[in-house]
Amino acid sequence: MAEHTFYYDGSLCIACRSCQVACKQWNYLPGEKTEFFAKEGGYQNPSDLSPITWTLMKFHEQETQGEVEWLFRRHHCFHCTQAACIEVCPVEPKAMIRHPEFGTVHVDQNLCIGCGACVEACPYGVPHVNYELEKSRKCTGCYDRVANGMLPACAKTCPTKAIRYGDKGELYALAKQRVKELRQAGWPDANVYGPDQLDGLHSIYVLPVKLETYELPAKVEWEYGRLEPIKRKAQEKYAAVLRERGVGLASVAGGGISGALVASGVVAAGLKKLADRKAARAREEAEEQS
Ligand code: SF4
Ligand code: SF4
Ligand code: SF4
Question: Which ligand 1 atom minimizes the distance to the CA of 163?
Fold first, then answer.
């Protein structure tokens, strides 16, 4: 199967937040306690991603000829090709992993030790640690749906087709074409975000106005100097966790951390139940569609 990408067209989005709801529903994520005007001067709610909010509609305001314009951007993991979160993850094998077929990035909940290195390293503020579970939580790319022939929940639910998901090459080409159309239709600053960042993101945006309006960095550098200390600190935490759990480094070297953590009883029975429930739901949906 070819590499995949998410595609988001800000000129089609109506900020209905169906994607936010669908993500919570599919991933069994509870609601947040929110406040009106949580973000000063805006309707963005909740104010940021969190361990229980993996996709969020961001609201940006700009004044054009005395009128306030609302501009939207769907925020979730960019599934970067150069992924700082994978680079710094200290667990062996990595708890932060790239899906071998789709190219998206997700956390193996069995392996994660909740050290928070990925949180510190991510240039987009995406992962968040659930300190109760000691696990990093973020968008999974819905690999559990895609592997069962379904669209990611957010893409499936989007009523205007602002969110799409599919072949990376095709959607990169579509984004280029759409920017051309928008420019011809009177949006001279329309641009595409993603193909030029971190060796090509697996989540790209078509944006009708300038990048700065969306508080997105045009240049995201792969800064080794910044990642190295995060990595070192995380490796120390990992060694401490192994000592705490009574797992010798020799057993890690022999059986890998997955064997070692399983032996130390870290894998929760609840995770299996969750996987079973999801597989059942996936089968039901596939039947509905056939
Ligand atoms: S791909 Fe899945 S996990 Fe990621 S934002 Fe969409 S619904 Fe949520
Ligand atoms: S956006 Fe952050 S969490 Fe997602 S792949 Fe990139 S570095 Fe990792
Ligand atoms: S919290 Fe630590 S162990 Fe878990 S995915 Fe992030 S870097 Fe890896």
Answer: 6
Unique residue bearing structure tokens 């890690």? 252
What's the domain count of the chain? Answer: 2
Alpha carbon of 77 to ligand 1 centroid (Å): 9
Question: For the whole model, what pTM was predicted?
Answer: 0.86
Same structural domain, 14 and 58: yes
Residues 6 or more apart whose CB falls under 8 angstroms from that of 143 comprise: 99, 102, 104, 106
Residue 137: closest CA among 120, 160, 112, 164: 112
Residue located nearest, by CA, to atom 3 of ligand 1 = 139
DSSP state of 101: T
Indicate the residue type of 127. Answer: P
Residue 107 inside a domain? The answer is no
Domain that holds residue 45: 4-79+152-214
CA distance 169 to 176: 11
Query: Would the pLDDT of 251 be above 60?
Result: no
Q: Is residue 35's pLDDT more than 80?
A: no
Same domain, yes or no: 11 and 127? no
